[in-house]
């Protein structure tokens, strides 16, 4: 078993590895070293779009170990509105040019990067240079090279880097991982995992390759890809893919619909589809020797539920996934333990997604082994 | 629109084409020409395995225009049992060496070929030479060449050849075709269609490449392939595929699990999987601009049902599919009208399945256009 698959197999565990064994965790930050280990870490949000506004800020109110401490925005209007709404101090409000000055601000422990995909490296690296831990939204970036730069910058700064894979903290998804790991239905054989939606506004950054790096695969297909990886606990070795465009005006820049198949070392095959052109596809189903289990819907902010071939329901109380994700990261930082969703995990997905694009473009299967 | 797609678009129609326009229908057989058009056609079953015993013979009792008139079997034990059970006359009982003598037997109008796949051509051609119409189980044969020989033999004999695609006569599947053709949810974008099961006895002919021609794709994956073709009403132009073996002893001869993707001229993509190694996969779901529809299970002898994104159920009374298929073929013969499931339709599937195998073997997409 290589180190990549052992990381995957740790999905269920709260790691108790000593910090000494973790090359990517260096010296603790002064603000943390001096702090009460039970205190709330200060989060600064970078990018105040829909996700920050409607999910992350409300979630911060529900955390045990986190609080909103600052913002980074290019919009003075948004800065004013957030300042008033969340009672922020002027010294904790930054723009993209000033955010490196956070180095002098002990109120901010963690920077949560919620900007368009192709800006993640820039904002992560600035945060790391300012001595902050970084939680970065998925997809990690738009190329493997930029992901590696983010990992290197955080390592050099002795700060943790986590990717916003909220489903790693979602009980129904964790239950499916358990069903797979404990072989409740025997050895896994096949997974079908799909996620897509019909996108609206044709002018949004998600349809702009320069900012998004790709289309539905990068945005939501990544959840289906993640599911096939955390359910199997393996890394794919072969990719085939096909993509299609039926609306070449709207989808001039990024793919409209893409379907891909992965083969894993144990022989498990997975088949996935992602789209920006129709609704209704948001599930996965895993087939094993003696039965199957399914989540449908599988990836939402709420309402995740499923069933098993033996008639049992999968319907665990989910809570706020963003709150769980942020609290987990805060605990990792406070206890100097590794996150289970590190930059390396984000990089793996980017590499696989680039291989999916290559397979679709060339019509040839791509080896990942 | 080429002739292939027009055939597909006729799925819903009972054709009223004049016989003159049908090159594959020649002179009527004497036995029919002289007969009461309302009489029951005599069917001879070739191959008395599980399907004949448990599905086709019971279905014959439910038909309006068909009756069991004879059998062809290599087993004298089966011959005796069937003779007694169905009150068959000795002159209507044949073996594989004597079946050409049916030419002199006016009791037999139609030969239903239910032998292993790689014997379909031999038995179809013998039946055609004996002047009989032929209904042949799917898959049509194990190669395009042999399919073409079957088509040619029936054409030369002036007899009709139909392939046993029972779902073309199944109301819930026909309802899904209607939803697609009438664009009830707008233009189709994507279809997921899967069918597989965990196979038992490792010694059965279905696991023997020489007799089966392939594994689950040929046996049950063909239903998923058919669904993607009759729902789209188009012919695929591009194939990608991947296969896997986790039990190389049991699956030394045919594939264990195979996943394939098809791209159609309008841009619709379909993703399908078939397997002999796990249960639970027997559905299709079609996604369109404004909604989706699904059958789950989609392909069984009974229990087919589904749902739509608007909350409506799809749950039409199905009846016996084999009876519907045989009665339809009898009507086509009696009225000298073309079947909607001719040999050409079976050949198309064989060509596509061979391309799926090629794509899986080479790791390269295969163009079918």
Report on the structure:
2 copies of one chain form a homodimer. With 369 residues, chain A is an alpha/beta fold. Chain A is built from 11 helices and 15 strands. In chain A, the strands form 2 sheets. A 9-stranded mixed β-sheet of chain A has the order 14-13-12-11-7-10-9-8-15. In chain A, a hairpin with a 2-residue loop joins strand 11 (282-288) and strand 12 (291-295). In chain A, helix 3 (50-62) packs across helix 10, helix 5 (120-129) runs parallel beside helix 6 and helix 7 (171-181) packs across helix 9. The longest helix of chain A has 20 residues, at 343-362. Chain A is globular. Chain A binds chain B through residues 187, 189-190, 192, 194, 198, 238, 240-246, 257, 259, 261, 263, 266-269, 271, 273, 275, 277-281, 285, 287-289, 291-292, 309, 359, 363-365, and chain B through 187, 189-190, 192, 194, 198, 238, 240-246, 257, 259, 261, 263, 266-269, 271, 273, 275, 277-281, 285, 287-289, 291-292, 309, 359, 363-365.
What are the main properties of this structure?
homodimer; 369 residues; alpha/beta; 9-stranded mixed beta sheet; 6-stranded parallel beta sheet; 11 helices; 34% helix; 20% strand; globular
Cα-to-Cα separation, first versus last residue of chain A: 13 Å
The overall strand count of chain A is 15
Largest sheet data of chain A:
9 strands, mixed
Low-confidence stretches of chain A: 1-10, 13-34
Seen as an oligomer or otherwise, the chain set is homodimer
Gross morphology of chain A is globular
Output the helix-strand order of chain A. HHEHEHEEHEHEHEHHEEEEEEEHHE
Q: Percent helix among the residues of chain A?
A: 25-40%
Structural class of chain A: alpha/beta
